[in-house]
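Quick one from the shared queue. A colleague (R.T.) flagged Lipoprotein as missing a structural entry in our internal table.

Convert sequence to structure tokens.
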Amino acid sequence: MSMPQFPRFMRRRSGVILAFAASVLFTGAAPEHAHEKVLGAAGGDPSLEAVAMPCKDGRRALRVRHGDAKRTATLSAPYDTLTCDVAASESEGDWTGGEESTSWSLHVRTVSLPGGPTALLITHAAGFEHVHRRHALFIADAKGATRAWEGDEGQGPTSSRVEVQDGRLLFSRTLDLGEGAPADTWALSELRWDAGRKKVVTRPAEAWAVILRTEDSLSAVREAEARLEAGCPSAKLLAVDTNDFPRLTRDKWVVASFLPSRQGAEAELQRLRPCAPDAYLKRVQ
């Protein structure tokens, strides 16, 4: 008796189904990559959740959702996806994945916007030789999840961070070239909730600098920076154009260490005094 013949596409599909069934039979569940992973949550019931969606074509979509609402949100591409091997780190809210050129890390935490809603803050860092970060704040409304703010680093050896200090939510960005032109840059902004417009707004934040040296040219300030770094090896120094800061004398160049609070700057000044006795404190914005 001849065996019944099935079309080729049906045989291929049957093979996939049988493989999936065998996985469930021997492990008791579908493969881990077939499930979504909740990476962090904020707010009440329903909560605002950051979710790594089930793996598809070698990637997981990164989504933020609010309960069963249809509208979800995410970060701008290419920070809106993760590799499938999402793994929890030792610290709560920290996740990693990928290998070398595809490596990434994710930090998910809850922040309270002064005078506004509780938000979910996601920092996605990706890259192997040059790591770049993208930060985003998400809030919930009647229609679902919304990306309320996003900050990136731009090109070059830039670093950034979002931190809460003295009740302020601050975003800092640093370009530290270390030598040559152009000059280094440092910027600090505060993220605030505008109750009237019901949105997150940014503005320059109060910031301070410990100034170690002032020069008339970039080449001279780079030479001073090299000498000071050799004498103060633990200092994080930048050579910047004073025109970048409204409270500094214009058309000069300084070697300085920048901080978001006067208290922190005073502590840094005392720490640097042994290797830079002429250093002084100055509010820069």
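Residues 208-283 form a domain with the Alpha-Beta Plaits fold (CATH 3.30.70).
The two ends are 89 Å apart (CA to CA).
Added to the table.
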